[in-house]
Amino acid sequence: MNDALLTLRDVHVRFPAKRNWRGKVVEQVHALNGLDLTINDGETLGVVGESGCGKSTLSQVLMGMLVPSQGECVRARSPGSRLANGMQMVFKDPLSSLDPRLPVWRTITEPVWLQGHGSETERRALACELATLVGIRHECLDRLPHAFSGGQRQRIAIARAFSAAGYHFIGRTHVSFGYFCSGTNSEFTGDATATA
Length: 196
What we know:
Layout: E1 4-19, E2 25-40, H1 55-63, E3 70-75, E4 87-90, H2 94-97, H3 104-108, H4 110-114, H5 120-134, H6 150-163, E5 168-171, H7 178-181, E6 193-195
Parallel strand pairs: 4-5, 5-6
Antiparallel strand pairs: 1-2, 1-3
């Protein structure tokens, strides 16, 4: 049985840097060059490098937001998710990724709503459960995102990622996952794959 959640084979990503007068690309920037990678179920991967080395490009390829110029990216399909592969992005700046007009409980359950699962009552109960899991009091779920601190907003973003069927995450910074990786949350039982 293959437990690979994600496999990259000889992945190259190139961006046009210069075009001639006819619009033909004459120079390219090589963001990723011949990358091979396999992430199995239960593994955690951290990608570290200097600015401009391709970390963000790799994240976009892993999420399917960017198609490789060459090579192959194979993502395992999550059995409980109708949305592709059950992977969720946890953004570096939580405030910009949260809808300022939605109460937090709706934000947390947005992936469930997009998949067409559950009534409003079921989604609200799920939001309470996930909020407790990440350390947000369920009494606060009717508030808007601006009413929370930066750390609380990051936890809300993580709860939103948990509401999708899979527990596979891609985040821009280790701080996004520090709450769970530090072992301070004894209730968390899912397998989290974090790619920074």
